[in-house]
Queue: 3 jobs
Job 1
Amino acid sequence: MASGSRMFSILRGAAPRLTRDLFTCRHGCKSSHPKKLSKRFFGSSLSRRSADGSLRRPDVASLLDAVARPRRSSGVKTGYFPETSDKSVAYWLLGSAASVFGIVVFGGLTRLTESGLSITEWRPVTGSLPPRSAEDWDSEFTKYRSSPEFKLLNPHMTLDEFKSIYYMEWTHRIWGRVVGMSFLLPAAYFIARRKVSAPMAGKIVGIAGLIGFQGFLGWWMVKSGLKDDLFAPGSHPRVSQYRLTAHLGTAFLCYTAMLWNGLSILREHKFLADPSAAMARLERLRSPKLKIFRRSVGALAVLVFCTAMSGGLVAGLDAGLIYNQFPKMGVGWTPPKSELFSDFYSHTPDKSDVWWRNPLENPSLVQLDHRILATTTFTSVMSLWAYTKFSPAVRKILPRACKKGMHGVVGFVGLQVALGITTLLYLVPLPLASAHQAGSLALLSSVIILGGRTWVPRRAARLVSQRLRARVPSPRPVV
């Protein structure tokens, strides 16, 4: 009785997978049709030939084993979304990352040329076109003349000079719209056409939301430079360094997310093309001997990001225009303590906020913090490279791709340090300052690429394991 109930439960669970042909009447059909049925359902995996060469029908136990065996994953669609994302999605994400890289560099140029406050309104739709008549230009120039930047910094600016900074800011805003539309429309297409896996669809939606938030942060940042009450009276009109850093940090996060997910898709396809070799590499990366290296790469990525954000504070406060010496700052290694922790930046009567306002608002301490973080980053990279070079255990087991990635990080950090020092010594010239900002994003990219070669991707590892299990035939019961 128990065996009968077990057989009934197995057949009931297998019923959705049984082919419709099994329950179709075959009277009057061609003779070749039953053969198709026999090949499709009673194929080589179940049918066996006897010693005389005749085809033996499968027994009941083999049939039950076949229908009760779960489907094996082979990259096909198991639900609404496929198991793996299409390669075209990866190339689109990498192309979007390149566009974000470009707009970050161009945004730095917009700030360095003091063009960011030339457009005093935020019009996402109607502001897509520049002024086309003399009346339109006069209207825009009149709005700019009412801004603090014109009154305190550019009171003698002509209309032609205004047009040059206007076009810089307009191009930056249009580029931002292009980034948004070139991401949103393909994202909707790929999700609707089921070109992405379910986890990747969620990540793409998250990146799209981050792009929209980035646009809001951009206007929020510009708005801080258009009102007198948002900066100290008599100071240089500029945007808030907090909002500038938030805007820069969100751009870095968008870029990193696009780069990482694009590379992840390509890595999954590479692993699934040769699961055996991929599993061997994954087992190599899981080695306890590489545990310190894997964690160090993650910590290095966080350190590079924090160093870049401290650079945003330096840019927002124009802190690069003071102490233009290296490695000393003035006559000593650091400015005087009274200057680093000045009561001037306190906003409370009891001076209780001195300890946190000075690191964020005092240009002298902000520059010192950036120097310390940059030096720490350089030292950490070189130490990690020495660890991979002179540790026998790590050098033996570390994959060749990881070693190349480490060499790339060393090259980029050396270039970034050289750019930072020369930018400081030459009083922040436009080409060097722009290259230094691009170098920070390039350095972060190299660390992310190294992490992609070093960290063990859990999802890719699970897919590889499923592919390998699918290759192993299931043991059949002995009758």
Job 2
Amino acid sequence: MRTRSGTRAAADNHPRPAPTRPSPLDFPYYQVHGDLNAAHQDAQNLDQIFLGLEKHVSVRHLEALNITLLGEIPLEKLIPEGYLPPTTWLQDPSLAAAPSSIAPDSAEPSKEARKPGHEEFYQRAKELLYDNDECFDSLPGGPRSRGPPPVKLSQTNNFYQNLLSMAESWDTSKDNYTINEDGKEMYTGRRYVAGHEMPPHYRENTVNAFVELCIWPFVCNLQSPRSSVNRKLQFRKRYLPVQGVTSSVCRNSTERQKAKGGILQGPLVGVHCRNTTTFRSATDGIGEGKEELMDLLSEVSAALLVAQKRAREGKVEEKPWENKYWALAERRHLGELGGGRQDAETNTRARREIEAMESGVEPMEDVEMEKKRDGSNSNDAKRRRIQGPKQAYLTTKPPESQWEPKMEYRSIGKEPAAGADNIYLISSLNHHVSIVNIRIDDRYLEYITHGSPKEDFDPSTEEWWILEVKRSKWFDLFDPQDRGEAMRGIWGVMQWMTREMG
């Protein structure tokens, strides 16, 4: 994270060469018709349909998954009744006539999760309602004059640091263009680049800081994927990469020793950020752009990935490489070198290295490399040791596990007898966030993951073969009122997911 210095902050008001014109604010629009006849035929051929998805994406992919979409859903209908904080929680609780509560079970904390109330909500929400300029001026290195900072940030300092980084790409409120004496266009304002040029991690850091602000009172943390392997969706016999970055809201372990060891439980909610700013070409109609369709499939894939992880509760990872000769930790037989694709030079070097290893003497090339490492040349000192064929063969490791370490997979918040899981996803585009809810039937998830229960079903008669996607409005993180509403929504989701189960 870059901290804005006073010198650069003061430069906002000094003319400089104009940056790239601001990126137009655009969002994807979807038109899902739900053709049952097409879904009936395509559901049998999912593997074939999703080959070459990025090159040939079309509405057919949405129909094959039987996706229906409901947009602009109010928070009151997106979150079960009794768990969404009322709008009065955005006001000082000391001014309230009587203490308010959300759900009946939120009055007393449970062993599984704490239930924060109005006071903890308002401590964070009040800082989100501050004016952006006042918050930016209160940051370390801000452009304020002598005197105390305009506002005091105790809970949201990290969020506003990252929001400022986004503002330098997206905030057009202070844009001013002039022409100097030489006829060149000059600029004063906050932006240094356009929105589409912003590094993706600025958005990720800002959204993560905002989400963490809402989940910490529930004894939860945000876990980012440790590697690209943990971001892949199991789709029959393949693993498909999920576009964008998907983090997980996880609960700290309720056991003291496991909590000290960093063990997390979940995931509860997914957080999905994408870097797309243009969703259709000049010839595409609304809802027909390739990027629009890819964006919806990306969100659905992220939700299915969260559902797959939650469904791992009580299961043991199936490792296809177990007891396979090519994945064993120790290898004793190298086989015959030579022939095939190896040329004479490679064979000669390999045999020389094998003979040197058997005699206990290092090959001369490796000795020379060691001398270079210890030398004064920094580039040579950083050069890695070159492995011969035998060493590479003996040190080959099995594929990386699809399951994350230090994670106890649990479907927290899922009704045991419901037969379906309500997946919540915090989705982010541009400088906005939205709350997405997808109800995924257990049979649907099983069919996507393993291709069962049965191949010859009729989607017109199977109630489980439907994916209903509900989305809230897009909340602007630069708008204080939208920030307050987005926090209400995330807080309500966390109240629902950490509720006491009977």
Job 3
Amino acid sequence: MSVKFEKETVRESAIPGGRKHEIAHEIGERLTGGDTVTGYLAAYLEQLQKNPLRTKMLTSGSLSALQEVLASWIAHDRSKHGHYLSARVPKMALYGAFISAPLGHVLIAILQKVFKGRTSLKAKILQILVSNLIVSPIQNTVYLVSMAIIAGARTFHQVRATVRAGFMPVMKVSWITSPLALAFAQQFLPEHTWVPFFNIVAFVIGTYINAHTKKKRLAALRKKHYGDGRSNSGRTDEYSRRDY
């Protein structure tokens, strides 16, 4: 009896947590690739190699739409129908898929081509400088122009006012986060994984900026229409002209 009990104990303790441990391990492999080639990340990277632009467009479009919904939820910015799925969501998806993704695809490809094979510290620092002084200003300018049009700007003066008002604040955020993200990618990530990594970084930063902007706009509208009081519904139908 004692021998049988010891064998059963050994058999049960071979895999701590039993079936729960196996399930957790399987989920981890699916998400990261693990020891298999069927992981979600591995499958995504494979598509990124086979169809780079299409994969980037689908990724950027999905993340841009999700970013708008998440930012609206954080800022409690509901549409006139009382939910967070406003008309901006499909517009943001179109921006991400047809403007942001192709632009980023071209700019990052040029940046990687220029510095291909250059691994010295001087080359890495120069790459960060080029990214922050050339690539980021182009991307941020296009972003601000697109956001102004999505928000309702229809004249050149409205678009220019948006870019002039938002350019330096957005660039300051880029100058803080971009060098850290690029230095991390240079040190720890292979080049074919840079795109999903930068997509995640951009998603987090973009959600923060979008939510912060929505909160400021809602506060300004409440102050304008209700004094220091708060709106009962917290809903707004359109963006204030001050955003232009």
